[in-house]
Amino acid sequence: MAAIATKFALWEVPALDTLKDAKAYILRQKVNNKEKLSREEKNWISYQVNHNTYFKSGIPVRGWRFDFSDILKTFLVNQYGCWYEYKSIDKTALRNFLHGRINKIVQI
Fold first, then answer.
1. Mean pLDDT across 2-31
2. Tally of CB atoms within 10 A around 22
3. Which of 33, 58, 60, 75 is positioned for an S-S bond with 67, CB 3.0–4.6 A?
4. Tens of pLDDT along 19-51?
């Protein structure tokens, strides 16, 4: 079972207990309990992981890192003549946040 979150900020951050209503906290707890994620939840995790500047496989929330590397897969996407690397739960979640023509998706 993975930890709910780890502190990454050097400054003072709120206690982890105060973040129990955060979506990342709720989803990490759901993954730890081996509950099935809905399509909306999978899409949200995949989007958040790929649209933050701090981590490649985690979601930052107020100085805490919610790591989802245990459920994420790495994909190479050929789009507009270039290859890009993304982390996502599955291809469907990846396609959900990508825009434009996708030539090929390869799971690594």
1. 94
2. 17
3. 58
4. 999 999 999 999 999 999 999 999 999 999 999
What span, in angstroms and rounded, lies between the C-alpha atoms of 98 and 86?
10
N-to-C CA span, the chain: 24
Q: For residue 7, what are the CA distances in angstroms to 12, 19, 28, 35?
A: 10, 12, 15, 25
Percent of the chain topping pLDDT 70: 99
The structural domains of the chain, with segments of one domain joined by +, span 6-67, 73-107
Picking from 24, 32, 84, the residue whose alpha carbon sits closest to that of residue 48 is: 24
Q: What is the pTM of this model?
A: 0.93
pLDDT value for 48:
97
> Do you know the residue count of the chain?
108
Long-range Cβ contact pairs of 89-95 (< 8 A, separation 24 or more) = 89/37, 89/42, 89/45, 89/46, 90/42, 92/39, 92/42, 92/43, 93/39, 93/42, 93/43, 93/45, 93/46, 93/47, 94/46
